[in-house]
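Kindly draft a sequence, keeping tokens residue-aligned:
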Amino acid sequence: MKWFVRLFDFYLDASVHVSLAVVSLMVITSLTLNISLDFHLTLFIFFGSVGCYNFIKYGVEAKKYVIVANKYHKSIQIFSLICMAIALYHAHFMNVNTYIGIAVLILLIGLYALPLLPKVKNLRSWGGLKIFIVALVWAGTTVVLPILLEEKSLSWDVWVETVQRFLLVLILLLPFEIRDLAFDSVDLKTLPQRYGIKTTKWIGVVLTGLFFFLIFFKDDYTNQELLLKLFLSLVLLLVLRITKRNQSKYFAAFWVESIPVFGCALAILLAK
């Protein structure tokens, strides 16, 4: 049993689960916007997400990522480098528009993780901005990139889906913000730090309502998409309801990040 727990912890710590969530959202995009799911882009996003997330978590300071004493972190480092190599291979099959989109997202990730601005360590440490950058990157990755690869126009429905995706990720990040209250520096000025846990949850409720009702602003949506967005909204409300400061080890890292995976499974079932 211990080997299973260690393997599961590695699955979470090495960002495999969060990368699966990212790809799940891209699958939802392909079904809701009726575009094909490109094999190379899917693998690029999955393996690239593993590498990027692990770099942000463990290697923001280059010297810590090059010289790793901890064996466990060393295994994550090697795993991440392999994933980045696979991602670079699949990037070879993208078109120019997709490369431009990827470059913009990499710039945002760089600003988020690295100290590129004067008097500011990085955007991650810029008060209150962290979750908005993460949500923007996820929305661009899972909605805009597939559209760019398909060489389709950024229509009104695409923009509505992008805003909905931004809101979805923003809401998913709130349980993490509440969990990290005990660890985050007060300089971060996160929503729970500024407004408290109760108000943060109410902000999440309002954002969830906005996330759902935006579907009616689309020019074209299906009953299947309506059911999917309703399901996601109800799950988000439930998660906000039960989220607390002292969470179990796997509440946010596994269960909250599983919501896109469950949504993807439902989207596939509804599409049949």
